[in-house]
Write a structure and sequence with these properties.
Layout lengths: L2 E9 L11 E9 L4 E6 L3 H8 L5 E12 L1 E3 L11 H8 L4 H6 L4 H10 L2 H17 L2 E7 L6 H16 L4 E8 L10 H18 L5 E6 L6 H13 L3 E6 L7 H7 L4 E4 L5 H10 L2 E4 L1 H6 L7 H7 L3 E3 L13 H10 L5 H7 L2 H6 L16 E4 L6 H4 L6 E5 L3
Parallel strand pairs: 1-4, 5-6, 6-7, 7-8, 8-9, 9-10, 10-11, 11-12
Antiparallel strand pairs: 1-2, 2-3, 4-13, 13-14
Helix pairs in contact: 5-6, 6-7, 7-8, 9-10, 13-14
This protein binds zinc ion.
């Protein structure tokens, strides 16, 4: 159904410098329900409709509110069962993430509940999280597997992610995540790697269960060489590559991932100047995950150096039961602009256009003709209001492409 949204402060997130947010103060957006058809000044809307031979079925007065593209959460672990509230309490008392992980907590503590949950339970838990994300403005969300870690179990998680996506009114992008070597395979680590590259990755590609493969390269996860083996296998099977890089230690994975043409590298609390230069040269997106950074009391990633090198910056929730149990991108925008010293403009582009780029999606994250008709109307006028009033829900309505 065609709809013309009028009296809107339109933020296209598609403007050229020096106004990358592309603000149109008294603006209008015309959609056909599936795609944006036209964006411009409200004064030009009727002429545009005539020129396009469109009579809008609906004319919606937005009362001067801010209208933006639907938000894109490009990094989540939204499929899991159980929680790790006890670990949160331990960290609040001062215990470290890696010490807790070595004592049997961390990712391994989520494997049992997730492996033991039925498909129906996992689907319900995931859909609940997707709906919570949508309520804060998210209209496209990436969901990684990674809390089963067996070949059959990871394929199951990806199938459940697809079903959850089919039952929730937002777009879901599944990713295969090679998260860690599971405890029961540490003794035959090399055989496990062999299974990942010869069975799991090919099966994911053959059944089109994910468009990209992500590897967690860090102390306690995969080594740089192991990461290279998995990512090369992914690329050989036509899958895009991403990596969790430098959260705790710099393993040189930013250079590795950039060299393989990675869509993104995520975390980056620890990255060398050479790593940053490699990301810039490859055009790889750096995904900032400020919630996990703050919660684990890590030093902030080098945003100023990434910016100076021209590395595109995205911002995501890292929704997961261990280090960032949240579905809210506006909350991450607050952390990005305060703790990580990103600008308001960078935070907005990081949850819209640049986040879409991290997922390889050119049809969203902006309000422009041909983009998906995913819009958020905010109870705000100034773009800064959304991170500024942190913790408040300023979402007036979320419109997703039909
Ligand atoms: Zn993550």
């Amino acid at each position: 159904m065609t709809a013309l949204y009028l009296r809107a402060r339109v933020m296209t997130c598609n403007g050229p410098a020096p106004d990358p947010l592309g603000l149109v103060d008294d603006g209008a957006v015309l959609t056909d329900g599936a795609q944006v058809v036209w964006v411009g000044a409200a004064a030009d809307a009727d002429a545009a409709c005539r020129a396009l031979d469109v009579v809008p079925a609906e004319r919606v007065d937005l009362g001067g509110r801010l209208v933006t593209p639907g938000l894109v959460d490009c990094h989540t672990h939204a499929i899991f069962a159980g929680d790790r509230a006890a670990e949160f309490a331990m960290r609040a008392r001062g215990e470290g993430y890696l010490e807790i992980a070595r004592a049997g907590g961390g990712i391994a503590a989520t494997l049992g509940p997730t492996r033991g949950a039925s498909d129906a339970t996992l689907e319900r838990l995931t859909v609940d999280r997707l709906m919570a994300a949508r309520a804060t403005g998210t209209t496209t969300i990436e969901v990684k597997s990674g809390y089963d870690l067996t070949v059959a179990g990871e394929l199951r998680l990806l199938r459940v992610i697809a079903r959850a996506g089919a039952h929730a009114p937002l777009a879901v992008v599944p990713t295969l995540l090679c998260h860690v070597v599971p405890p029961e395979r540490r003794a035959d680590r090399d055989d496990y790697l062999h299974e990942l590259v010869t069975a799991l990755v090919p099966a994911v590609a053959a059944d089109r269960l994910a468009t990209s493969v992500d590897v967690y390269c860090d102390d306690g996860a995969f080594t740089r060489d192991e990461t290279a083996r998995i990512l090369v296998a992914a690329r050989d099977h036509g899958l895009a590559v991403r990596a969790h890089v430098g959260q705790f230690t710099d393993q040189g994975a930013a250079e590795l991932a950039a060299g393989l043409g990675a869509r993104s590298v995520d975390h980056l609390e620890q990255v060398s100047a050479a790593g940053i230069a490699a990301l810039a040269a490859a055009g790889t997106v750096a995904v900032m995950l400020p919630g996990a950074c703050v919660q684990l009391r890590l030093p902030p990633p080098p945003v100023a150096a990434l910016r100076a090198a021209g590395v595109p910056l995205a911002v995501a929730t890292d929704l997961n039961p261990g280090s960032s149990y949240t579905t809210s991108l506006p909350l991450q925008m607050w952390l990005a602009t305060t703790h990580l010293a990103m600008t308001v403009e960078e935070a907005w582009l990081g949850v819209t256009r640049i986040a879409a780029r991290a997922l390889g999606l050119a049809d969203r994250g902006v309000l422009a003709p041909g983009a998906r008709a995913d819009l958020v109307v905010w109870n705000a006028e100034h773009p800064a209001a959304v991170p500024y009033q942190y913790g408040a829900s300023l979402v007036e309505r979320v419109i997703t492409a039909a």
